[in-house]
Amino acid sequence: MKTYDEKHIKNVVLIGAAKSGKTTLAEDMLFEAGIIPKRGSVEERNTISDYHEVEHARGNSVYATTLHTEWRDYKINIIDTPGLEDFMGEVASSIRVCDTAVMLLHAYNGVEVGTEQIWDYVDRYNKPTILAINQLDHENANYQQVLEQARRFFGPAVTVMQYPVNQGPGFNAIIDLLKMTMYRFPAGGGKPEKLPIPEEEKTQADEWHNTLVEKAAENDDALMELYFEKGSLDEDELRQGLKIGMMKHQVFPVFCLSALRNMGSGRMMGFIDNVAPSAVEMPRKSRKTAAKYPTTPLAPPACSCSRPSWNPTSANSPSLKS
């Protein structure tokens, strides 16, 4: 495995209500990067993260599991968490040590009771957050309804990054408002084809792109001046503004997925690489003790222990974050 500096390591936690698709998304993220040769499934009891017998018997995650993937010269450390309230301790400790939380929302069920319970911890720890609307291939998927629910619950920080062209069983295309590109996926998922935005989608795409630009600009005075001067922002400036907004807990980017069909994970990983803040970019938190913990590789080592974990190959070991 490559050696990465501190800015090229991202620590994310996959969270969401039960059956929102966290474990399946984790499989996608490993498969797309070539870490595993084949995707497992929860139904077949052969996923990387759900390896305990009790998880096989129950058909859902019971423990938080640490994984990693590598995407375009970045290392992404992943914690896959349970969704049931019985195991909320696993979720809370994982959120505490992550840099970015990826909150999965079911494209039909939307914001659920489990979502609300988990969000209490994300909000308490003020974690940068990505909202991923998953299962857009579901026959009752309703992107607009879930987006409106998210805006009511999470507030004005909800920021559309992508929207589906054809949700439902035929789902295979999304409009990306940062890239201003349509991504169309092959039937088996995986790497999408990049296409111009269709004429019938341009009005909607332009409107939401302008909203995205305004949202990015409002988080930084220098970017706001550029926006007033040019009337827009380029892609790098948008990334900068979105990163600042995420760190301030004022931007929650919305992505589109079908984890089951392996559609959308690669683009989201690219965003995690280029926009989601690393540990060294986050502002230093105040602590109850007088000790200072500078976020620099030259400082003495310090780490958080999120939970003890066990797997058949490494025996009992804690999950540590430096």
In brief:
Helices cover 31% and strands 22% of the residues. By secondary structure, the protein is an alpha/beta fold.
Describe this structure in words.
This protein has nine helices and 13 strands. With 322 residues, the chain is α/β, with parallel strands linked by helices. The chain has one domain (8-315): Rossmann fold (3-Layer(aba) Sandwich), CATH 3.40.50.300. The strands form three sheets. Strands 2-3-1-4-5-11-6 form a seven-stranded mixed beta sheet, sandwiched between helices. It has a four-stranded antiparallel beta sheet with strand order 7-8-9-10, with no helix packed on it. The longest helix is centred in the middle third of the chain and has 16 residues, at 202-217. It is globular and about 60 Å long. The two termini are 19 Å apart. Residues 312-317 have low confidence and may be disordered.
Topology:
Layout: E1 9-16, H1 22-32, H2 53-58, E2 65-71, E3 74-80, H3 88-97, E4 100-106, H4 113-125, E5 129-134, H5 143-154, E6 158-160, E7 162-164, E8 173-176, E9 181-184, E10 193-195, H6 202-217, H7 221-230, H8 235-247, E11 252-256, H9 265-274, E12 304-311, E13 315-321
Parallel strand pairs: 1-3, 1-4, 4-5, 5-11, 6-11
Antiparallel strand pairs: 2-3, 7-8, 8-9, 9-10, 12-13
